[in-house]
Design goal:
By secondary structure, the protein is of the alpha+beta class. About 40% of the residues lie in helices and about 20% in strands.
Amino acid sequence: MKLRAALLGLAVVFAAPAWAQTEARHTETAIFAGGCFWCVEADFDKINGVLSTTSGYVGGSKPNPTYAEVSAGGTGYAEAVRVEFDPSRISYAQLVEKFWPTIDPTVKNQQFCDIGSQYRTGIFALNAQQLQVAEASKAALQKSAPFKQPIVTEVVMAGKFYPAEDYHQDYYKKNPIRYTFYRSTCGRDARLKQLWGEKAAH
């Protein structure tokens, strides 16, 4: 008991200063839609400065949508990923630039083998500043004309984001064989390489 008390006393002496204990790490949030949220989540998890990702649904109006409802189409929702990031390590503008090479921004209501508005690409801004940054980035991409087709990815203010069911979270980690098979057979990486070359995400 005396030893434990002594160790506890040392812990108090060498404890971090109060300001270090109470200071919380500042984080920010972004929402991106790029077709299958399993793939979007996997791509963003690789980016330095991204702290966490959550697959879910955004862009519709029905409360608490389910995967069955969204995947069937007609709900207005898109599969999307909420990204929590450390702005001291990566800015929102940099995240947007990282997003483009993970998608095909030239097709409407489709990404690779997945067809329907629920698989549309989009940047869903959470405030006016994000909206301005995303719109400027899209305009710059369109002006640089890397593709013959126009950029159709939507840039809009986000409505309520609903996390997807638990089995969708970190799907690529929980089911690596199924995920790799899906991503490959869907042609995602082959198309990204064709569009973006060495900039392609995967």
